[in-house]
Every structure is written in structure tokens, then in C-alpha cells.
Specification:
The structure is a single chain. By secondary structure, the protein is an all-alpha fold. It has a single domain, classed as Four Helix Bundle (Hemerythrin (Met), subunit A) (Up-down Bundle). It contains seven helices and no strands.
């Protein structure tokens, strides 16, 4: 494996980190915007309900953090942060790019749907303020799948950067 291919593989892995963080951030911004629009509509009539809606407005933002966590782990495991000298082959870098992209895509989609679920919960709180505890469950169910994507990504990154896998994929 020539040094050029090692650096190309490393570049693909960093592309995966960028996809993970970038797509997750886009989804979080989009989801928060959806929930914020719904909250603004309720607050025109009942501004005192802001505190009950705050968690539902903020929940779609967690996917941005999940993308960031995955990106940092990818950069640490491949040597951008910490300076390890792992030899990332083309096939290993491609696998890490796909892992980062799939995580970013999952975080983007769940953040948007979580924003919509939050908007539904906010609408419910606007009509029935006593239902705030139940309403927060709508976006919380969507959060489950964002967390599962993060966990799968963490396990995949750790698996793909083990010395035995690096040797296997470099052949």
C-alpha cells in the first residue's frame, strides 16, 4: 500500500466525519426551525407557555451533537486528533466515509421528523397546557432512533479502526 493510497483513505475517512457533522447540523437547524415556528404561533396567544414548550423546541438540536460526537470519534480513531499513525487503506477510508454519511443522513432525517413531532406536541400544549408531560413523548420517541444511529456509528468506527480490520481491509 503506497503512501498516496493511505492518505487518500484517510481523506475519505475525514470526509465521513464532515458528512456526519454537517448533515446532522443541517437537520438540527431545520428541526428546531419547525418546532420554533409552532411555538411562535402558540406564544402569540399564550406567552406564559414558553417554559413548557422549551424542551420540545430544543430536542431536534441533539442530533447536531450526535453528529459532532461521531465526527470527533472518527478523527481521533484515524489520527487527525491525537496524531496516531494508523494506515487507513482506501477500502477502510471508504467504509468510514459510508459510516459517517449514513450517520449524518440518519441524524438529518430524525432531526426533521423530531421537529415535526415537537410541533405536534407544542400544538397540543397550546390547546391543553396540562398535557405538556405527555406531549414531550412525541419527539422523545423519534430521539430513540437518533441515539441508535449514534451507537451503531460508534461501534462501526471502533470496529473498522481495530488493527486486525485495518490489516484485513488493506489486502
Amino acid at each position: 500500500m503506497t503512501p498516496e493510497w493511505i492518505e487518500f483513505g484517510r481523506g475519505l475517512a475525514y470526509g465521513g466525519a464532515a458528512c456526519s457533522f454537517g448533515l446532522a447540523g443541517i437537520g438540527s437547524a431545520w428541526g428546531i426551525a419547525i418546532a420554533s415556528h409552532a411555538a411562535a404561533g402558540v406564544m402569540r396567544e399564550k406567552p406564559e407557555l414558553f417554559g413548557r414548550m422549551l424542551v420540545m423546541i430544543a430536542l431536534p438540536g441533539t442530533q447536531g451533537f450526535y453528529g459532532f460526537i461521531a465526527a470527533i470519534l472518527l478523527m481521533v480513531q484515524t489520527g487527525l486528533i491525537g496524531g496516531s499513525s494508523l494506515k487507513i487503506s482506501f477500502s477502510n477510508g471508504l467504509a468510514l466515509l459510508i459510516v459517517g454519511f449514513i450517520n449524518g443522513l440518519a441524524q438529518l432525517i430524525t432531526a426533521i421528523y423530531q421537529g415535526e413531532a415537537s410541533a405536534a406536541g407544542i400544538s397540543l400544549v397550546g390547546r391543553r397546557p396540562d398535557a405538556a408531560g405527555k406531549a414531550v413523548l412525541f419527539p422523545a420517541f423519534v430521539e430513540t432512533y437518533a441515539v441508535l444511529s449514534l451507537l451503531g456509528t460508534i461501534l462501526s468506527i471502533i470496529f473498522l479502526t481495530q488493527p486486525i480490520m485495518l490489516q484485513f481491509l488493506s489486502k
